[in-house]
């Protein structure tokens, strides 16, 4: 039924603006039901969508429920799921020496596998040197 403004005023027809906007914009007064397959915390009721929007957990159980999405989010944001913070200089030196030894040992194994014995001997000597330096630092 279409009524012009003149006829509506002449016939004293009242139009509820809320009903009009609801009808025009397709909004419903009743909240839409969430789909059944939505990941949701069984303790606090937080959904995966809410977690993605806020980046915050609702309760301790959320960490278990949203473990997968949380891993994906951390990888997307930080490029990794583990954090390596600042390290005191002395410890950083020791860690880098440890890492260097680890890499040299892996390279040594590769040289032995490919029968590059001259290079393997050089790496072996470097490993011995680093291990002697490391041993001298610790009483």
Structural commentary:
With 139 residues, this protein is mainly alpha-helical. It has a domain of 49 residues. Helix 6 runs antiparallel to helix 7. The N and C termini lie far apart (95 Å). The mean pLDDT is 76.
Keywords:
139 residues, mainly alpha, 7 helices, 62% helix, rod-shaped
Helix-strand layout with pairing:
Blueprint: H1 5-10, H2 17-25, H3 48-54, H4 60-65, H5 67-78, H6 89-113, H7 117-137
Helix pairs in contact: 6-7
Described by its quaternary structure, the protein is single chain
Number of strands: 0
Number of helices: 7
Q: Globular, elongated, flat, extended or rod-shaped: what is the shape? A: rod-shaped
Distance between the termini: 95 Å
Work out the helicity level: 55-70%
Main sheet summary: none
The radius of gyration computed from the alpha-carbon positions, rounded to a whole number of angstroms, is: 33 Å
Order of helices and strands: HHHHHHH
Strand content: under 5%
Structural class based on helices, strands and sheet pairing: mainly alpha
Mean pLDDT: 76
Uncertain runs with pLDDT below 50, 5 residues or more? none
